Amino acid sequence: MKLSRHALSVAIGAVLASAVAAQENGEAQRLDEITVTAQRYEESLQQVPISITAVNEEQFEKFQIDRLDKLVYTTPNIIIENNTGTSSAAKIFLRGVGADESLFTADPAVAVYIDDVYIPRQTGAQIALYDIERIEVLRGPQGTLYGRNATGGAIKYITKKPDGNNTFTVDGAFGNLERRDLRGSAYFGLNEAVSGGVAVMTKNREGYSTNLTTGADVNDQELHSARATLRMAASDITTVDVALDVVRERNGPGMASCVLSRPLSLPRPPIPPATTPPAPFNYPGCDTDGDPYTLSSNLRTKNDLDQFGASLVSETEFENFTWRNVLAYREMDNLLNGDFDGQNAVLLHIFQDQTQDQKSFESQFAGATGNLRWVIGGFYFDEANEQPTQQSVFAPGVLELIVQDTDAYALYGQGTFDFENGFSLTGGLRYSDETKDFFKSATCTNGQASPDGNAFRCANGQTAYVTRREDSWSSVDWRAALDYRFNDEVMAYGSAATGFKSGGFNGRGAITRSATGVISDAITTVDEENVLSYEVGVKSTLADGRLRLNANYYYNDYTDLQLTAIDPNGAFVLRNAADVTIQGIEVDFAALLSENFQLTGNIGTIDGEYDSDPSVLVAAGTPTFPNELKQAPDLTWNVGFIWDIPTEVGGFTWSANAHFADEHYQNVANSELIKTDSYTLVDSRLSYAPSDSNWEVALFGRNLTDEDYITGGFDIGALGIAAAYYNVPRTYGAEFKVSW
Q1: Most buried among 173, 295, 542, 683, using CB within 10 Å?
Q2: What values do phi and psi take at 282, rounded to 5?
Q3: Can you tell me whether residue 543 is helix, strand or coil?
């Protein structure tokens, strides 16, 4: 923790210096107050005994936060990247905990919500931002109010709502890599009781990597989406919001660059008999030019994503409480045909055609009785997934069908009692129950099947089978917090909470039957994941409201942490890793140094370790222990500024931000081949708006220092496969915006 203490002292010193400068300037300006709904009712960010990052519209624009993964610029201790092989699946790790398996049999540990509608799948969760009022990132387990599998944290989107005013906005961006973005929104009032809004967006960019086999650009972007909202005053006390959204993505899949360089004359590692390729098995060389943005692929890849969502939210204001209901339906189709080896050969190809739909309903009551603020509610969630898939290692693999249905419900309640002496006590309980029905079948590529459910060995050595599994998990989770307000500007708190993530099945596992009749079943059941979390922190507003400084220390004790690894044969393995302890420090600040200059930043540390030798490491072929946690950099920090420059010809605004992440591993085996080295990203934007005008133009640059680093990868040494995915290189261009 020596590094943590040093980082904390540097951060505190920087903000205190900012505070002194602000005080000496003697301005009367104050930072804008931030209102959040982290505890299901509106309250000031500085009065909530929870670690929260809130991002508003100004930061979206000035700091170029236009997609979920850009939240790394505003939030400490968070990693968000495209999941390996995808262009729209979000791999989210918060305080060293998350999930990098996009198959629906693995649930994320950081929950995503859009207007309180739960988004359960990584696929499609890499959301492009538009029509958003603010985003709240809740760090740490949310076992009481946002309880479904949120052992790592929760990300809440709050969309814009029509307010009866007529407003229209069009903005766009053009830049290198043939970037062409266009967004438009219109809000209008139909009458005193009904108002509505429509927002549309299209984002296009050519690929930033080159496939040397075909000469084509890959890792491109093509996205089209629309959202419509309708707000109705059903009565004097009841408001109803209806929302529809649709997304159509035709991006190519994420394409990896080979990082395993061996001369063809050298023998490859021994290949397991079940996956022995035709002789000779000397693969084409890789990384021959040393350029991380070139690769080779012999596959016609595809990644089509279609999503549709509908929600109805009603809110009734009674005298002492509010009754809120959230009814939602969503569906998704994703066709993925990906090359995961980065070489011009059939080493590791994966095809999958997922269909998903979900239905959910949540009803909650929130109110105040005397000094008691309280929330009670119930949640129901039903999800169905089906996916034909084929994983080909050296040769076409069996044709699989994976199906899983999930039913989940929960009852929860939380209350905060405010004492007269400045103390407040919060307590909450949640009961969660989940049932999952799992089905998987495999048909050999020569057409042989096993209709009776027994593992059947085909003539070509493959195994056909049919299996059905069902299991249930339940948990009672709690939260307790005590905070003390020294005055209106400074609050300290301490909390303890638990979190629960339901168990599941190793969906990518298989059943095999040897030539001698020995059956091996790798479709194992995964136990639930639990966490006990402790946190102490301080929230303060200083320098007459010109400085906001928050700091906290967290300690998370995980039991049966769920992790994904790849075994030496190239099989994906989802298992309970072990018990894990993670602790660290987080500091965030905002300082108004003058009327026109605002400085923001944060710093976070992660100190995590396995408490015992985890079985998932053995599955990954790791010979030694201990290993470091994956996706857990020791240190991350962000710093940014917004500088408004008024002139006689109009107003200029210069904004810039920098994001640093320490080195960290991409897999549980701690492979050095696909390790992410430490990196710093720098973005900047300069805008101009004439006085008394309704338009604005801007120049922007992202990753200005043109850093390249690994965002994900595979290292399967026994198969001679090591491939890495890289970030987007430097981009730049111009933007415009017109409002009326």
Answers
A1: 295
A2: -95, 110
A3: helix
Comparing CA positions, the residue from 149, 140, 60 lying closest to residue 113 is 149
CATH architecture of residue range(s) 2-739? Beta Barrel (2.40)
For 440-469, the DSSP string reads EEEE-TTS---TTSS-EE-TTS-EEEEEEE
Q: Report the C-alpha gap between 17 and 26 in whole angstroms.
A: 15
The residue extents of the domains of the chain are 2-739
Q: How far apart are CA 678 and CA 639, in angstroms?
A: 16
pLDDT of residue 113: 95
Q: b/e map of 519-555 (b: 16 or more CB within 10 Å)?
A: eeebbeebebbbbbbebebebbbbbbbbbbbbbbbbe
Return the pLDDT at 281: 38
Structure confidence at residue 567 (pLDDT): 75
- Among 14, 61, 20, 13, which Cα is nearest to 593's? 20
DSSP secondary structure, 189-227, as one string: ESSSSEEEEEEEEEEEE--SEEETTT--EES-EEEEEEE
Separation of alpha carbons 444 and 464, rounded Å:
6
Name the 3-class secondary structure at 540: strand
DSSP 319-357: SSEEEEEEEEEEEEEEEEEEE-S-SSSSSSEEEEEEEEE
Report the candidate in 13, 268, 274, 311 with the shortest Cα–Cα distance to residue 159.
311
What pLDDT was estimated at residue 706? 97
Give the model's pLDDT for residue 528: 96
pLDDT at 13: 52
pLDDT of 496 reads: 97
Q: Which residues contact 329 (CB under 8 A, 6 or more apart)?
A: 309, 310, 311, 357, 358, 359, 360
Report pLDDT for 616.
64
**What's residue 631's pLDDT?**
96
Distance CA 84, CA 303 (A): 13
Q: How confident is the model at residue 28, as a pLDDT?
A: 59
The per-residue DSSP string of 480-531 comes to: EEEEEESSSSEEEEEEEEEEEE--EE-TT--EEE-TT--EEE--PEEPPEEE
pLDDT of the residue at 29: 85
Which residue from 196, 178, 198 is spatially nearest to 186, judged by alpha carbons?
A: 198
Residue 490 near residue 551 (C-beta atoms within 8 A): no
The Cα 335–Cα 352 span in angstroms is: 6
Q: Determine which helix (DSSP H) or strand (DSSP E) holds 309, and give its type and residue range.
A: strand 302-317
pLDDT of residue 623: 54
- Asked if residue 423 lies in contact with residue 484, where contact means CB atoms within 8 angstroms, the answer is yes
* SS3 label, residue 45: helix
Q: Which residues lie across from 184 on neighbouring strands?
A: 170, 200
What distance in Å separates the CA atoms of residue 189 and residue 191, rounded to the nearest whole number? 6
DSSP 4: H
Q: Which residues contact 256 (CB under 8 A, 6 or more apart)?
A: 84, 85, 295, 339, 340, 341, 342, 713, 714, 723, 724, 725
Q: Report helix, strand or coil for 33.
A: coil
Q: What distance in Å separates the CA atoms of residue 565 and residue 270, rounded to the nearest whole number?
A: 20
Please state, as a whole number, how many other Cβ atoms lie within 10 Å of the Cβ of residue 53: 24
Instruction: Provide the phi-psi class of 62: left if phi over 0, else alpha when psi is between -120 and 50, else beta.
Output: alpha
Residue ranges in the chain whose pLDDT is less than 70: 1-28, 260-288, 568-569, 613-626, 718
Q: Tokens 């069908």 map to which residue?
A: 401
Position 643 scores a pLDDT of: 97
How far is the first Cα of the chain from the last one, in angstroms, to the nearest whole number? 53
The overall pTM is greater than 0.90: yes
Cα diameter, the chain: 87
Centroid of chain to Cα 713: 17
Which phi and psi (to 5°) does residue 205 adopt? Answer: -155, 140
